[in-house]
Amino acid sequence: MLQKMIDGHTHLENGDLTKEYVHQFIDAAIQKGIDHLHILDHTHRFYEFRELYDEVCNFDYRQKQWVDKKQKNSIYEYYDLIEEIKKEKLPIKVSFGLEVCFSPYHISFLKNKLNEFPYDFLVGAIHSIDGAIYDLHDLSKEIIWSKVPVDTIYKRYYQLLIEAIDSKLFTQIAHPDVIKMYEIYPSYDLTSTYEKIGQHAFQSHVALEDNTGASYRYHHPEIGLNPKFREILINQNVKIIPCSDAHYPEDIGKNFERII
Ligand SMILES: [Zn+2]
Ligand SMILES: [Zn+2]
């Protein structure tokens, strides 16, 4: 069984950047028996990360509309919030980071930007494949899943994931096998891919998430990682972090009891 006292990935996405909202997360974590909470939000929330989304915005105007809608704050508001909270004496350990949409075209931008603040942790995530977002339901089905061969999507997704691991920008990699979310699978066996990811993560000292988000948001039958993937990572001594990917306080620790 995994150690389940940490929730390694919870989002402020649906609330304001206020101390009160952070405290709702802390209270919910205590209720769930979590004693270490990782709080973050997506880079797409913050104006200063806009250029990371150039490829996504240029790929399809509806994706640009989506990015426009997501941009709500300056990163400096987030820095201020973190500094305020860190002055308090908190009942559990709370760490602050970012979920960064990794793009191989913006590595030097990210290096500079992420060095600007002493984050406790940084999560790298693949949310788009060369400009195409793969998880926006009907839109993604139209622009990628119905156009690009599934094997190609999987191969490119995992190639980007390895680039994110090797970039040394991150301490943690988000939902490593979430590309399975729609239960559309490649024709080839993924075992060697899982092994390769584990090797890179181990060498780079990067933790991989056992993220339950797809199980309750996309109703994927697997709770967190594919069981074979998890087993390989355990055997390779890769650090695994249980994560709910909560977008609301009530989802903290969600489905952790079902991770096996
Ligand atoms: Zn994510
Ligand atoms: Zn997330």
Determine the structural class based on helices, strands and strand pairing.
alpha/beta
Tell me what portion of residues adopts beta-strand conformation. 15-25%
**What would you report as the Rg, rounded to the nearest angstrom?**
18 Å
C-alpha termini separation: 6 Å
Arithmetic mean pLDDT: 96
Q: What is CATH's topology name?
A: TIM Barrel
Q: What is the element string, with H for helices and E for strands?
A: EHEHHHEHEEEHHEHEHHE
Helix content: 25-40%
User: What count of helical segments does DSSP give?
Assistant: 10
What is the β-strand count?
A: 9
CATH class: Alpha Beta
| Biggest beta sheet attributes | 7 strands, parallel
CATH architecture classification name: Alpha-Beta Barrel
Q: What number of structural domains do the residues give? A: 1
Low-pLDDT runs? none
CATH homologous superfamily designation? Metal-dependent hydrolases
Instruction: Specify the overall morphology.
Output: globular
Small molecules (ligands, ions, cofactors) in the structure:
zinc ion
Instruction: Give the strand line-up of the largest sheet.
Output: 1-2-3-4-7-8-9
